[in-house]
Amino acid sequence: LKLPDDAARLDRATRLVYGRPPSQKEGDIATRFLAEYAAEMGGAPSADRTRTAWAAWLRVILGSNGFVYVD
């Protein structure tokens, strides 16, 4: 599944995991996380940094209280 940009990817992932669109705060946190994670991978090719950062972010949201526990 190809999505045009990080905002679309974040929207899709959040809707799949939580059943709702991401809040502004969640979007800001995700954007900062993805940028910082990719930057820490310095010498890796850009596509690898992006893919790895997204894999890490998905692990974060799948381990979140909002996913693990039901209200």
Structural class: mainly alpha
What is the overall silhouette?
globular
Count, helices: 4
Termini, distance in Å?
A: 31 Å
Averaged pLDDT: 91
**Can you tell me the residue ranges where pLDDT is under 50 for at least 5 consecutive residues?**
none
Topology pattern, helix = H, strand = E: HHHH
Tally of extended strands?
0
Strand content: under 5%
Q: Major sheet: size, sense and barrel closure? A: none
- The rounded Rg comes to 13 Å
Helicity, as a percent range: over 70%
List the keywords.
single chain, mainly alpha, 0% strand
What would you note in describing this structure?
The protein has 71 residues and is mainly alpha-helical. Helix content is 72%, strand content 0%. The chain has helices spanning 6-18, 24-40, 46-62, 65-68. It is globular and about 45 Å long. It starts with 5 loop residues before the first helix and ends with a helix.
